[in-house]
Amino acid sequence: MNKTTTVRAEFIVSKEAIFPLSEFTDRLEIEPIRSYNLGDRVRDLDLYRKVSCWCVGTQDEESYDINNQLSQLIDILVAKQQVLIDFQ
User: Fold this and answer.
1) Distance between CA atoms of 26 and 29, rounded to whole angstroms?
2) Residue-wise DSSP of 6-55
3) pLDDT tens for residues 54-68?
4) What's the pTM value of the predicted model, to 2 decimals?
């Protein structure tokens, strides 16, 4: 039997406050796979976000080694290190 594993690597910035998502995206010049702010409604439910979140990641891939996906993500983010530090 040939079993496969699907993996994905994500880098998530979260904060328990309103976060300038558009400004953060513009400064990083990276489009997030998802983002939302504290207090945003969760889909059509009567639930609201408890944190702000900005997330970038790899696509789901069949792999037994997450290091491939981590390397892709690190390659994207390494040049943006100072922007990330400035937003602390």
Assistant:
1) 5
2) EE--EEEEEESS---HHHHHHHHT---SEEE-TT-B-TTSS-B-SSEEEE
3) 999 999 999 888 899
4) 0.84
